[in-house]
Amino acid sequence: MHMEHDILNGTILEENKEISLPELCQVCKVDAEWVIALVHEGILEPIGTGPEYWFFSRIALRRALIVNRLQHDLDINLAGAALVVELLEERDTLLARINL
């Protein structure tokens, strides 16, 4: 009997640590130009003066992963992805208020 095994690959990130642009690119499996486009679209807000000095929060990482999936799975452009991310975050805020 032949069994297939799925292998999970991932990166462990510290809870309160920001990640650099290269680390974000590695986790999302994208190039720096894609991340820079997300910054220009207002989806991500880096900490730092320029791309070589940028760091991103865990919220930015979550947003980048969502946008990446929206583009890959649904072929949504950046403006549409920005709107979806905003609506998802609003929904999460409202749900948190209800569950207080």
Summarize the structure in words.
- It is built from four helices and two strands; from the N terminus they run βααβαα.
- It has helices at residues 21-28, 32-41, 58-74, 78-98, and strands spanning 19-20, 55-56.
- It has a two-stranded antiparallel ribbon with strand order 1-2.
- α3 (58-74) packs across α4 (78-98).
Furnish the topology, listing elements before pairings.
Elements: E1 19-20, H1 21-28, H2 32-41, E2 55-56, H3 58-74, H4 78-98
Antiparallel strand pairs: 1-2
Helix pairs in contact: 3-4
Features:
globular, mainly alpha, 4 helices, two-stranded antiparallel ribbon, Multidrug-efflux Transporter Regulator, Chain: A, Domain 2, about 100 residues
Summarize the structure.
This protein has 100 residues and is mostly helical. Helix content is 56%, strand content 4%.
User: CATH architecture, please?
Assistant: Orthogonal Bundle
Using the alpha-carbon principal axes, give the shape. Answer: globular
Count the DSSP helices.
Answer: 4
Number of self-contained structural domains: 1
Structural class comes to mainly alpha
Give the strand content.
under 5%
- The CATH topology annotation reads as Multidrug-efflux Transporter Regulator, Chain: A, Domain 2
Q: Give the CA-CA distance, first to last residue.
A: 51 Å
What is the CATH top level name? Mainly Alpha
The main sheet comes to: 2 strands, antiparallel
Q: pLDDT below 50 for ≥5 consecutive residues: which ranges?
A: none
